[in-house]
Structure prediction request, 1147 residues.
Amino acid sequence: MRRGEKNRTSQREGIAALQGTIMVFLLFSIVSDNFFTVYNISNVLKNSAVLFLVSIGITMAIVIGCNDISAGSVMSVSGIITALLLKNGFGLWTAIAAGLGTGILAGVLNGILIVWFQANFWVATFATYSIAQGAALVMSNGNGIAGFPGAFRFLGTGRLAGIYVIVYLAFFMGAGAWFLMKKTRFGEHIYAVGGSEEIARLCGLSVEKIKFGVFVLSGTLAGAAGILLAAKTNVAMPSGGAGYEFDAIAAAMIGGTSLEGGKGTIQGTAVGVFLITILRNGLTVLGISSVFHYLLIGLIIMGVIILDVTRTRVQERKKGGRRG
Amino acid sequence: MKSTRRQKIFSYVPQVVMLWTLVLFLSVTEPAFLTKENLSNIFIGQVPFLLLLSLGMTISVIVRGLDLSIGSNMALSSCIAGLVMKQAGMLPGILSGLLTGCLLGMANGILIAKVRLPAFIATYGMDWIGKGLAYVLMMGTTAYGFSPAFRSLSLGSTAGIPHLLLICLTGFAVVCFLFSRTVFGWKVYAVGLNTQGAVCSGVEVDRILTGAYMLNGLLAGLTGLLYISQLDAVDPTIGEGWSMKLIAAVLIGGASMKGGRATMGHTLFGVLILAILTNGINLWGVSSLWQQVVTGCVILFSILLEQSSRLFRAYMEKRQWEQKEKKI
Amino acid sequence: MESPQAVLEMKGIRKHFSENLVLKDVDFTLRAGEVHALLGANGAGKSTLMKIACGVLPYDRGQVYVRGKQVQFRSVTEARNAGLAMIHQELSLLKNRCVYENIFMGRELTKPGFPGLLDEKKMIEISRKILGEMGYELDPQRKTADLSVAWQQIVEIAKAVWKKADIIIMDEPTSSLTKQETSQLFQLIGRLKGEGCGIVYISHKIEELFQIADRITVLNQGKVCLEKEMSQVSKEELLYAMTGKHIYETRREKARTGEGILRVEGLGGKGFHNCSLSVRKGEIVSITGIVGAGRSELVSSIFGINKASEGKIFLLGEEVPLRHSPSYSIKKKLGLLPEDRKKQGLIMGMSVERNIVQAALNLLFPRGFISASAVSEQAGKYGRQALYQQEMEKLPEKLSGGNQQKVVLAKWLCTNCQILIFDEPTKGIDAAAREEIYRLMEELARQGKGILMVSSDQREVLQMSDRVYVMKQGTISRELKREEITEEKIISAEF
Prediction:
């Protein structure tokens, strides 16, 4: 009985989010005829893929006890750069590499600010956010860049065995991230630093390197998400990634990642991503004007965050009370 | 007493030098800079709005936060004010606008003080909610063509001074007074500098924090009113893209993000520098898209400057301390 | 040169913090296979000595030998690699990780041929084996947060065992254990001893020491004053060794005390329980006890920083609601000079003048508008009263500890508080300023204010107090009247 304890506690939170997702799913299926169709479900999967990529990076950043609000605009800028290169006749792989490189660069900037200059992570990622946003606008001249070669579009809209390529990509990235967090020394150390930087340092871990690594990873993933977003929509907008960071923070928190750090799983985040995507999709399918989306999603997400924070606090108080 | 006053004046030196160099450079290289049109464009078209909102941002920086919802707050309160004004007249309109700003600020304050969310998350969420509400409100309706009395708030002038400038300077003076000469202002600084110490000195931290964010919201509401008065119509998109500019203004003013170390006077300089810089970019014929990059770099540069000087100081202190230890 | 079985030897260790010499040429020897107890009153230097051994703190002079080899550790990691492990009072386990992950943290096993890839199976297996060999059946996959403190301690020891530590330092390991858990721990210590580990055991519970220790070293004010086989000493001898044999005359004439102004009945909360005390007008009352006995927790609950969960507080005869805030206490004329002046007492970055009036803002300016002249007048007046003689515009971070304390005192004088709680009033303060603080306290008592002082400094307690409460393990264990206050009585009530 004792053996199972660990798994049970960590799963309990995930299950609550999963139940919520299934309930929302069923609700939409009952209310709308157009929701539970092959077309729409594969659409949901496709849409969640991009969000999932960003969310993985942000989950890691939150688990280590920080946050990364630059991810959205990093997506925009990497999408724009990839699109520009493609438009100017560069090869597919060059363009993709440049997009990813942009993400890595943004991650390195975050890492330098936070690790070397010891800046507060909110402020640091905000600086990166504003620069990336500006760069995206300047490079695109403020306009969307549309129309890509077929090979690139295949990434976003092509199918293999009836399922979108982008979904495979997200799945493999997710599996890789899960493996990294769960099965490798690096992942173990991310959780340790998030649990307590001081203790991690006492155990001989190099906290700085681990933090740097996480921010570079988060930037890279945001870059990848930006590329896929452009491939999926066949257009790179200078503000295409705006708001993705917020959705991603929310997805991570719905999936049981705590803002305090040291807690959270990739599979939990996956559930969170599904919940948010289903909500957005369901609202569209129900014919609710997109004007309402900002509001409803904002309210729901804030509600979830507030619930999460108060719940952990109540739990802590109960625990403390028992000891005292 | 003298020494502190001198210190206070000295702390403005970098900002004054920056401003002066900028003005000098622009007036020499750009003949269009010192024209009446251009100056009124800066001081009536830009500064009043930027200043009022930056004061709010400064308040949130003083209490160790950042308010990303100021733009949305301004948009939402102006939409509500406009709609009410069309239905019920000018005074209810103005009041409802200010009240909306206050309430949204209060929501921020409660989320931060009571629920203890990080200011970033709370105000970021509020940004989406405010924006969403504004869009929903304005769905399928518009409000334009306000009464001349209301429009004169932004267009009229008294004794040669434009009302807009008058209002924003009054606002500035009131906020300055609040933070330098009232119990509330002193307590806000105490909370920003050392929350725990403030609690131990009997400061009601929750109330002070909420109050600070309410004041912040009120300023956003006021700016929204002035904005629609100038525009003569409501527009839910007017809140986009403000946060970055405001943070840049506060940072150029020399504020530290560590809390309790920002002043309204410095923010005024930050606003002037930013407004003139933006104007210069336009005059040079550079695409206005570059503005964002410039503000971003300014933010980055300020952070680098602050952090490196802090690290340098810490290093020097450590060395001094070590030498002292050796002597003993 | 050393006896062959000495695993850790420290010779002539000297250490100072700023101007205080805290260790004066201390010798300490730990043999293999022994439990060596380290005993001493607050500030005797036992934790400092052990932190030096583990590389946490540097030292001024002296040598450290580990298994006969001279060493100079620059970090905890180096000490660990040499086989030293310290088990801190606040455990250094990651609550969000499992038992086995904690045991292997920083030295994870990886699959052969795949660097960076964790070999969980092997780690779990080894953890189970280690725990099993120690005699415990604990599932290595359990979350550390779900374990009781005793089990966490066992994990902590398992961590040391896996790292092949043969010098284990335990700092108050039983402070939060139940009787049964304590005896479990003792069994484990016995087993480790049998395997040849040397164990340094720091504890305030003298009875325990007789049960578990082989040898004992008693420190008193940075000097070794007793080193003996445990079987050859008595409790009285130990208590006597810990007292400084100093004679401190109380410096105060008998106070003319008035009616009670602070009364606490059966107060309980985090870290203390069932505490009752009272303070009368014109009286200086001390609370003493070893560090960790719950003194600061008690007074900060009286002031309202922490919240008490049971009991009653009366200020000036009126009952105070239990979950009150400091601002309420200030209204009721109660002030607290906290131990941590930098974090709680003062607001750094704000001028001395503003710090002095900070707590009295509502009182001085009931309409909310501040007049600068009134501020400098009030600050000047109370600053002078508190013997503060520096500039009013200075920032408190540039002041010495003594002047900082004077500013805090001026702050409370400004609120006209009738009851003042001094938490470690002279900690980190030089001798001259210390005298001034004492003089101020006496003066305040003469004016009819009630003073409650928390202090670890025996001398100060003996000299200043009209009455003394001794706290032990979270509750008040003894009250000493003016005539009864002696160092022996305080020490024997503390331990």
Remarks:
- DSSP finds 14 helices and two strands in chain B.
- Chain B touches chain A through 41 residues (CB under 8 Å).
